[in-house]
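Response to reviewer comment R2.3. The reviewers asked that we include at least one raw input/output pair. We reproduce the pair for Winged helix-turn-helix transcriptional regulator here without editing.
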Amino acid sequence: MTKAGLRKPEFINEDGGVILIIYRPNIIKSDDPLKLSPLEKDILNLIVKDNQSTYDNLAISLSVSGATIKRAFRNLKVKGFIIRQGSKKIGYWMITEKGKSILS
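Raw output as returned:
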C-alpha cells in the first residue's frame, strides 16, 4: 500500500473482535485546475451566458443526462469554481474568481 501512496491500514482490537480500516486514495484534487473536464469547461461557459439555467436545460444543451450535469456541478463546487447564490428554487450560479481565471 505504501508503494501506491496509500495510508497504512489500521487494526483496532475491540470487544473480542478486530476492526480493519483501509483508506482509499483521494480522487478529487480540489486545487488542480488542469483536472477540469471538457464538460465542466462547457458548463462554466454556459453559466457565463445564462447563470439561471436549470440542470435539465444544461443537460439538453450539452446532450448529457441530468445526473451527469449534477455530478459535474458537484465537482465544480468542490473545486471552488462556482457557488450558489440565493435559494434552491430562485437562486443562480455564480462563477468564482478561480473559475474566471480558468476561462480567460
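DSSP finds four helices and four strands in the chain. Strands lie at 10-14, 17-21, 82-85, 92-95. Further pairs are available on request from the corresponding author.
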